[in-house]
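User: Before I run my own analysis I want an independent prediction to cross-check against. Here's the chain; please return only the structure tokens and, at the end, one sentence I can use as a sanity check.
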Amino acid sequence: MTVPNPPPRSRARDAGIEIGSLPPGPFNAITDVAGVLVGQTTVRWGEGSLRPGHGPARTGVTVVLPHPGNLFREKVPAAFHVINGFGKSIGAVQITELGTIKGPIALTSTLCVGRVADALVTHAIREHPGIGIATSTVNPVVAECNDGFLNDIQGRHVGEAHVLAAIAGAAGGAVAEGTVGAGTGMTAFGFKAGIGTASRLIPAALGGWTVGVLVLANHGRRGQLVVDGVPVGRLLGDGGAGSPERGSVVVVVATDAPLLDRGLGRLARRVALGLARGGSLGGHGSGELAIAFSSAPTVRVPHEPGRRTLAVEILADDDRGANDNSIDALFQGVVEATEEAVLNSIYRAETTVGRDGHSAAALPLGRVAEVLAAYRGIPGI
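Assistant: Structure tokens:
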């Protein structure tokens, strides 16, 4: 069952929170990177007591398409980085080995990973009937977070139709955030969270590229939450700081800077800095993953190159020249966009009641604004 998106709450920037110093793109979203598309299907139905395998459902799927063309025929360079490996992703090994992605990146609920991967294979075969027969096979890429607090996770309610609908509906422009798609049943820092996104524009003098980030946030404890350097979680009053962290966060990084897998791996590793700025400790029970790709046409890899060598144009990173400033700007963009995307995932999320009456409360935006104003008004702060 697909449901309309809930009325939007304000994003962090709309509330006067400006993370870092680089400007955001027009939509302040991963879709500000040329060609990147996002599609989402929300699966939400049922109320009351959990009936394992039967509901209630608070889940969904979110897909990121690196470019609108034929991804199997025009692979993109990519990198996969593990911050903490408590996760159940599919496709990471081949990304690490070959440094490319040849299909949509899907995010979903933990126990739906297999079903979503199967749907991605179905989609690929429909697009390319020769897969596995006349040509190579496909590597589905799926990452997950655990939404079992609100969702009947054993029901594995995300099916092929939901995945195919998300791919078919993938679009550029503004991206729905919070309680939508894969984020429907997620919480972060003790509040309702889910999907969040942000972007940064690199100055023209340093290349003029764009960095975009999309997160599936389901990590952190309430007392850890930091908003633009302010310990908001602690100041709001910690509800459960001593409880172990059982969530995860998946971060997808996109850029139009011409980078291959080695350079993209460097971007992916900077995700951890952005998460830390928001209060994440990368807890033992938290799967923390980053996937980075470049949509730049000059670095795409044809499925059948027709020759032994390929000519590519990539960003130089010689630390003796001016280009190191360009690399640093990309690093900064990743850190700032990651920090803001996590905040957007929380700011935009709506209070949600799930199975057995479990409730994840929305971040109290008015109270947060008061805390930020009072903290910043302290002399010497």
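Sanity check: Residues 271 and 334 are 6 Å apart (CA to CA).
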